[in-house]
Write a structure and sequence with these properties.
The structure is a single chain. With 478 residues, the chain is an alpha/beta fold. It has one domain: Glycosidases (TIM Barrel, Alpha-Beta Barrel). The strands form 3 sheets. Strands 1-2-3-4-5-7-10-11 form an 8-stranded parallel beta barrel, surrounded by 5 helices. Helix 7 runs parallel beside helix 9 and helix 8 packs antiparallel against helix 9. The two termini are 38 Å apart.
């Protein structure tokens, strides 16, 4: 398959190739549904939407912002499917008040956004750009004025290019600079910004950015993987310490792209491959955080990387774990591959989303319940879940009943997980407005709101009204 068949959400392709790309919507047979006993969410359940700075802000050269790895990556021919870029995106740097009004108009209680590291520290060094922080200060104030709780992600893949020039996450020093950045953010915003998500989907950034070359920084060197994984975990621990040292009343968590890893055809020899993928994709992030260890499968990759005291730093208490879920991964044993792992197709007849991934709400239940059983039952939030229109350059589908069906079915899985004892406190739909979807450009549309790229006009879809009603009374329609 061509490179564009894989994206940051085509997780079934993880290690070693592209996922099959389908052109369906998000609706089909419902063989993987769960039926909770109750359809009522608690009154204090957090309802929100999630976004990322690079995908929405635009204004890349405004107010002292420095370049990020994605600024360079998007300009290389062939890297973005529709040859577009994020120089405007949804123009949310300038139009953030309109975004806030849309969130408030939907009656949502929370907004998950990310802070651009290179706006705050343009080269990644210790010099702080006051103008960049002022923007986020205004955004936080605008949210609080509408009664919306801000949840800020500190790193959503847009590493300052100045740090990448020095080795990026493969360089241990980047973990130290990340702690400096966290301190700068909390020093300016900590009196009002109380909810912090440290890393977004570190597994995606590590693998797609450093092994497959599908994402920025566009590297294809498996020898970097152990360093990148550990230094991101280390940076997370250092950042958590910096935040808590500066302010005692914060809610600090992190967000992981978790997925069941399933052997193709249920065959026992493919279980070896599935276990290998699980170690890299799930356990290499969960185990250090909650247990202070790495899975044995990571030993060779991490040889000579971990220093004394690192695992104590990495293992930090979290107030919540963010879970991003889209689909399970199917893998098979491939003896011709250096890793012995290869992607496999979903089961025959499975309903597929626009990425060719299995639409399986039971996988969300499986993921949440696994965290409960194996990692001490932490408080959790679903920090991303959603589906795209079929890929294409045309206008968004405004009567998006397929999205409503998708969200309803996955929220049934959340209710079922809560009934099984999972402490799930919130759900953030991905995303607010159709935005720049990384290597897919604008061909993928996940928003509750459409945007005319020529005029910037935002138009709520049917799913926006549906989500508003749900957030209003917490009762999931049948």
């Amino acid at each position: 398959m061509e490179r564009s068949g894989v994206s940051r959400r085509a997780l079934g392709a993880l290690a070693l190739g592209s996922a099959a790309m389908g052109l369906s919507g998000c609706e089909g047979g419902h063989e993987t549904d769960l039926k909770p006993r109750s359809r009522q969410f608690p009154k204090d359940f957090v309802w929100g939407v999630a976004t990322a700075a690079f995908q929405t802000e635009g204004s890349q050269a405004v107010d002292g912002r420095g370049p990020s790895v994605w600024d360079l990556f998007e300009k290389v021919p062939g890297h973005v499917k529709d040859k577009s870029d994020a120089t405007v995106a949804t123009d949310s740097y300038r139009r953030f008040q309109e975004d806030v009004d849309l969130i408030a108009g939907a009656g949502l209680s929370a907004y998950r956004f990310s802070i651009s590291w290179s706006r705050v520290m343009p080269t990644g060094g210790r010099t702080v750009n006051a103008a960049g922080l002022d923007h986020y200060s205004k955004l936080v104030d605008a949210l609080l004025a509408k009664g919306i709780s801000p949840y800020a992600t500190l790193f959503h893949w847009d590493l300052p290019q100045g740090l990448q020039d020095k080795g990026g996450w493969a360089n241990r020093d980047t973990a130290l600079r990340f702690a400096d950045y966290a301190h700068a953010v909390v020093d300016k915003l900590g009196d009002r910004l109380k909810n912090y998500i440290i890393l977004n989907e570190a597994a995606v950034h590590a693998v797609f950015g450093h092994v497959l070359g599908e994402h920025a920084p566009g590297l294809k060197d498996i020898n970097l993987l152990g360093k990148v994984v550990h230094h991101m975990n280390l940076g997370q621990g250092l950042a958590m310490r910096a935040l808590r040292a500066a302010q005692g009343d914060l809610q600090v968590g992190t967000t992981m792209a978790l997925q069941p890893c399933r052997p193709a055809g249920g065959l026992f020899w493919n279980r070896l491959a599935a276990d290998g993928l699980d170690a890299l994709w799930n356990k290499a992030w969960l185990d250090p955080l909650f247990k202070g260890t790495y899975p044995k499968d990571m030993d060779d990759l991490l040889k000579g990387v971990i220093q004394d005291g690192d695992l104590k730093t990495v293992r930090q208490p979290v107030d919540f774990l963010g879970v991003n879920y889209y689909a399970p991964a199917y893998v098979r044993l491939d003896l011709s591959s250096p890793s012995k792992i290869a992607p496999a197709n979903p089961p025959r007849g499975a309903e597929l989303d626009a990425f060719g991934r299995h639409i399986d709400p039971s996988g969300l239940f499986e993921t949440l319940d696994r965290v409960r059983r194996e990692y001490g039952a932490p408080r959790m939030m679903v920090t991303e879940n959603g589906c795209s229109d079929p890929f294409g350059s045309g206008p968004a589908i405004l009567d998006d009943q397929f999205r409503i069906t998708y969200l309803r079915r996955h929220l049934e899985a959340v209710l079922a997980a809560r009934e099984a004892g999972c402490d799930v406190r919130g759900y953030f739909e991905w995303t607010l407005i159709d935005n720049f979807e990384w290597d897919l450009g604008y061909t993928s549309k996940f928003g509750l709101v459409a945007m005319d790229r020529k005029t910037g006009v935002r138009t709520p879809k049917a799913s926006y009204s549906w989500f508003k009603a749900l957030a209003g009374n917490g009762l999931l329609p049948a």
